[in-house]
Specification:
The protein has 159 residues and is mostly helical. It has eight helices and no strands. The protein has helices at residues 8-33, 42-67, 74-83, 92-111, 120-128, 130-136, 139-143, 151-158. The longest helix has 26 residues, at 8-33.
Amino acid sequence: MPGKVNPVICEAVIQAGMRARSSFSLVAEAAAHGTLQINEYMPLVADAMTEALGLVSAACRMLARQTEGITANEVRCRESLESNPIIITAFLPSIGYDRAQELLAEYRSMTHGAEPSQTIRSFLEDKLGHETVARILSPESLSALGYPDSPKEKKGNAQ
């Protein structure tokens, strides 16, 4: 197929990882079968470990050569994030599922399958306020674990 690109480097790295994982299982089994401080399977352990380390090392070098110099297009990444309706899920802890569903339905009804005139982010800023959207979609908020601003936690702390 003309123009087809196969991800063979990625596939090779995954296969090297699979092979290394199986070698380390062999190491664990051989070590478990050893007798006290004298392990009669030490040659097998050494061979499996050096093979696995060699495979992983070669795979890392191969992948590094292919990824060297790759940089993210920050503008394109931001555009993709701000136009993807899935960002509504970040608002669930603060506005709830039903309100989020209503907002998303309203946004989608504005577009009717066509290219939207505004991003989902600007739509949410109109509906919820710029400060709220900026706070919820900040990198710190998006990468935080849990829901520190949820009503349940506020109630629990107040008691």
